[in-house]
TrEMBL record, chain A:
Region described as Disordered: spans on this chain: 157-235
Keyword RNA-binding in record: no
Record field: compositional bias (Low complexity): 157-203
Protein name as annotated: ABC-type transport system permease protein
From TrEMBL, chain B:
Pfam family membership, one: ABC2_membrane_3
Protein name per its UniProtKB record: ABC-type Na+ efflux pump, permease component
One cellular component (GO) term of this entry: membrane
Keywords noted in UniProt: Membrane, Transmembrane, Transmembrane helix
One MF term in the entry's GO annotations: ABC-type transporter activity
Compartments reported by the entry: Membrane
């Protein structure tokens, strides 16, 4: 039955409307009343707490014996973490003892921590006391004006293919020293303002032209406009508050926490279809499973986009921010959909959702810390948000590199889930790994499908390899390259062989060596073609990093020396051979598959090591 | 015949282990704890670079207050002062970091009885924080020395700062964040399990079958609650054992487990109430998570809140009120449970 696009759209719209209506129906008056009660209760708790003196998780954790006459008493009493006890207390019952002109601390960790806390408390107290002084010049003899200067962008704004060996060695050196100096700043074409723009010779503190000048405090806003580094300000040394370097963490939570609520509801509604065969009614209707899934997803996707837009406006982001966060939301929905298709019970779904959420949060957050340090940061779309908010430009190539894998992953996840959106899978109870094999098998009915599934696995392989690079990035290069090569081989071999194994287990193909070799060759071919798309990594200069070379080099990406046709085809031969090895094992059953998989990984790793050492 | 409540609780626990959910729960907790430790240790070492000690901040110093600035910089470990003849040369050195290694510029001018320092630091995320922290340290030393010179004009003398120590900043974090996190995550998870366990029976219609057996609705709810409630203190005990094997001493483990048990009873009873009164599992989970997030977040503002109580019990800084506070939480927990029981009595089981 072939229907026009408008028919599909009509069906999708109708299902979406029905989904919205049904969900709205469950929020009855009673639920609303309960939500209100919960909110009022929370508000009440919070306001009594605020009256009682603000958040202090470390309230009274260190006990200090001190007499009220001691000059330190007021400082101790004003510090929440220090608990002032009378000097008559047993010395064993306190962590610090402040006597007349001496302080007793024993050698325990706790005692030293208490002393450090006392040190901070006294400094704070002194600053407070000085504020009350008449003579301002004597009380605050030092006036500091702090300026944040951009010393040339460390990530070149455009494509870096023209960069010479000097630049790549500079990048490798940086990873060791933590420096962000860049060799490219002389060109003057870097994104930021030039260092001299706001500097007048001899006198940095009295020219009143800085826009964000605030004479009372030097505190750099931690999240005022996300870019905590934009302004210059003046005050006493105690007013300096170092910028919070993990703006991306706050972003990750600002964007992802609201998403969790939407996704929780979405997972619930999908699993609901599978309970008591409720979804069967919809399945027998003259609509395709794809339409049902699209229709049921649409309202939640709309909610996600709306929430993202609200958050983006709240933190001061623009269209780029919303466009960068959208693919994260899509992957979140896609993964939850697959989770809801696999889960056996609500409990299992709850934890699958939490696991997905934790993984996505860390995957998007950790690389974004290094926004200004290394191009690896771009594997997280949040990096785009950080750069959008700080006013740095985002090129189209960077945007595609960052969001592309996420978009493709989302598409593949939905395809995977829709494959099992059918009666025989929805209403049976199997463990999650078996369901996963079923879902893979659902897409393999003819030998050439094997090649297609291999090709579709590329976004996941790419994401996994990027994650490995990001995790191993901090370790020394000699150690990480072999580990990385092994990981790459593991991920790629799994991507090439799991669906072949699933198809054999389901009895889709005859278990002969000839078939196995054919399937292996097709799988290798599909993977080889897909791998060529990873060339997008070149756009952001990732291959210039040593680890980037290790991960992407063996597949022929970004390596100019592969001019001979034979060498160009070497990766193809590799993928065909290793996929063939594991396919032959897969045809004989689970044990043989495990064994042949290990052989394939070993061959792959050996090949990678050879290529890297020859090139290096 | 065994108590039906125990039978139901055992069935709940066995379904958790069959689905490997319990493994996933433990792995997730470990991951969250490791992740937050990684974050905080990273953060703390940034804000207190003396801890890592490997990173030297090279500061270019110029201007007529150079001597005072150099003296102050020498007081701070990890700061390396370089004197330049004037601001222009210092600035140009700062702008060529690859050749000079200069991380920051301090230009001091004495004027009107004060020292005016203009500082320039690089604008690059993590490094900026390290440099600014070190500069602040230098400038505070300078301020203290200058104040000392002007003490004749001050009414109150500043209190002497106690000696610096090499204390691990990780110490405070372990007790105020890590231990409470590992104690309360299981509690929230148990609450979520209670919601799922009850609403699942309702949605699948199996509650009806269960009621055909010679058990009352009250016993069913009790059994499910029992399984969820005991899980949390068991996990808290496990984490504390692991922490003490790792060298983190927990001062009052028994009191902490009792407190976690009391809160677990409280949260799970609330979760069961939410599951019984909400029309659907989605609504129940939503209400539960919003409620827990806001109410628990709100309590951190109150003295003797659960997080702070666990921190003080674990670090061993309790006073006479500690036992009273734990008992109070237990009383509240039992109170909510009793309220739940009376609610279950009122619920028309056939309408579920």
């Amino acid at each position: 039955m072939s229907r026009s696009l408008s028919d599909h759209l009509r069906v999708v719209r109708r299902i979406a409307r029905w989904e919205v209506g049904r969900s709205a129906g469950t929020i009855d008056r009673r639920t609303a009343a309960f939500a209100l009660v919960a909110l009022l209760l929370a508000g009440g708790v919070a306001s009594t707490g605020a009256l009682a003196g603000g958040v202090a998780l470390d309230r009274d954790i260190y006990r200090v014996g001190v007499s009220p006459e001691s000059p330190y008493y007021d400082a101790i009493a004003s510090s929440p973490a220090l608990d002032a006890r009378p000097p008559t207390v047993d010395r064993a019952d306190v962590d610090l003892y402040v006597g007349d002109g001496y302080i007793v601390a024993d050698d325990s960790q706790k005692s030293r921590a208490a002393l450090a806390e006392l040190n901070d408390a006294v400094r704070r107290y002194n600053t407070g006391a000085m504020l009350a002084e008449e003579n301002r010049t004597a009380a605050f003899p030092v006036v500091v004006s702090l300026e944040y200067v951009q010393r040339g962008a460390s990530i070149p704004a455009g494509a870096t293919t023209g960069a010479s060996a000097e630049s790549s060695s500079g990048t490798a050196g940086e990873s060791e020293s933590g420096r962000t100096g860049s060799a490219g700043s002389d060109d003057g074409d870097a994104a930021g303002p030039t260092p001299d723009s706001s500097r007048s010779a001899g006198d940095g503190s009295d020219d009143g032209d800085a826009a964000d000048r605030d004479d009372d405090s030097l505190s750099v806003p931690t999240l005022g406009g996300i870019n905590p580094f934009g302004s210059e300000s003046t005050g006493s040394p105690a007013d300096i508050s170092p910028p919070f370097p993990f703006a991306s963490l706050v972003l990750a939570f600002a964007f992802l926490v609201p998403m969790n609520f939407v996704v929780q509801a979405y997972g619930g509604t999908m699993l609901n279809e599978r309970i008591n065969r409720r979804g069967e009614l919809l399945l027998v209707a003259p609509v395709s499973p794809g339409d049902i899934v699209a229709g049921k997803t649409l309202p939640y996707l709309t909610a996600l986009v709306g929430l993202t837009a609200v958050v983006a406006v709240a933190v001061g982001g623009g269209v780029v921010s919303v466009a960068a966060v959208l693919p994260i939301g899509l992957v979140f929905l896609g993964a939850t959909f697959v989770g809801a298709m696999f889960a056996r019970s609500f409990k299992e779904l709850t934890f699958l959702t939490v696991a997905i959420s934790v993984f996505l949060t860390s995957y998007t957050f950790v690389p974004a810390i290094f926004t200004q340090v290394t191009p690896i940061a771009l594997i997280s779309p949040l990096t785009l948000v950080v750069r959008d908010l700080s006013g740095a430009g985002v090129s189209l190539g960077e945007f595609l590199f960052s969001t592309g894998p996420f978009f493709l992953c989302a598409v593949v996840l939905f395809a995977l889930g829709s494959g099992v959106y059918r009666e025989e899978d929805m209403f049976t109870q199997r463990s999650v790994p078996l369901k996963f094999l079923d879902a893979l098998d659902a897409h393999v009915s003819r030998p050439r499908d094997v090649a297609l599934v291999s090709l579709l696995s590329i976004p996941f392989v790419f994401v996994a390899e990027l994650l490995a690079i990001a995790v191993l990035f901090v370790l020394p290069v000699e150690l990480t390259v072999p580990v990385l090569l092994l990981l790459v081989a593991l991920v790629e071999e799994a991507a090439k062989s799991l669906h072949v194994f699933a198809a054999f287990e389901k009895g889709r193909f005859a278990r002969t060596t000839r078939t196995a070799l054919l399937l292996g060759a097709l799988s290798g071919l599909g993977f080889f073609v897909g791998e060529k798309f990873t060339a997008v990594a070149q756009v952001v200069g990732l291959p210039e990093l040593t680890l980037g070379q290790a991960a992407l080099g063996p597949s022929g990406v970004g390596i100019g020396v592969f001019s001979a046709a034979g060498l160009l085809l070497a990766p193809l031969a590799l993928h065909v051979v290793t996929a063939g090895i594991s396919a032959v094992g897969a045809a004989r059953g689970r044990r043989w598959y495990a064994l042949s998989f290990l052989v394939a990984v070993a061959v792959h790793t050996a090949y990678n090591l050879t290529v890297v050492s020859v090139l290096g | 015949m065994a108590d039906p409540r125990l039978t139901i609780a055992k069935r709940e626990l066995s379904s958790l282990s069959r689905e490997k959910t319990i493994v996933l729960i433990l792995v997730l907790q470990l991951f969250v704890a490791a992740f937050s430790s990684f974050l905080v240790v990273g953060l703390v070492s940034l804000y207190d670079p003396g801890q890592t000690a490997s990173y030297e901040v090279d500061v270019a110093i110029a201007g007529d207050a150079t001597d005072e600035l150099v003296a102050a910089a020498n007081e701070v470990t990890g700061v390396d002062p370089h004197v330049y003849p004037d601001e222009a040369t210092a600035t140009s050195a700062f702008e060529r970091p690859t050749q000079t290694g200069i991380d920051a510029v301090l230009v001091g001018e004495s004027r009107d009885g004060r020292v005016y320092v203009s500082a320039a630091v690089p604008d690059s995320n993590v490094q900026t924080t390290v440099v600014v922290v070190q500069l602040r340290e230098v400038l505070q030393h300078l301020e203290r020395a200058e104040r000392e010179d002007r003490s004749a004009w001050l009414e109150t003398r500043p209190v002497d700062v106690p000696p610096e120590t090499s204390s691990s900043p990780y110490y405070g974090f372990t007790y105020t964040v890590l231990v409470p996190l590992l104690c309360f995550l299981p509690v929230f998870i148990s609450g979520s399990l209670t919601v799922d366990a009850l609403s699942e029976e309702r949605e699948r219609g199996t509650l009806e079958l269960l009621r055909v057996a010679p058990v009352s609705l009250r016993e069913i709810v009790d059994g499910k609650l029992l399984a969820a409630v005991v899980l949390a203190p068991a996990q808290a005990a496990l984490w504390m054992t692991l922490l003490s094997l790792d060298g983190t001493r927990i001062a009052n483990p028994v009191s902490v487990v009792v407190l976690v048990g009391a809160l677990s009873l409280l949260v799970c009873s609330l979760a069961a109430t939410v599951a019984l009164v909400s029309p659907e599992r989605r609504t129940a989970q939503f209400l539960y998570s919003v409620g827990v997030l806001f109410v628990f977040g709100g309590t951190t503002l109150v003295p003797n809140n659960p997080v702070n109580t666990v921190a003080r019990l674990a670090i061993g800084s309790t006073d006479a009120t500690a036992a009273f506070v734990v008992a109070a939480y237990a009383v509240v927990g039992v109170g909510v449970y009793v309220a739940l029981r009376s609610l279950v009595g009122d619920v028309d089981a056939n309408a579920l």
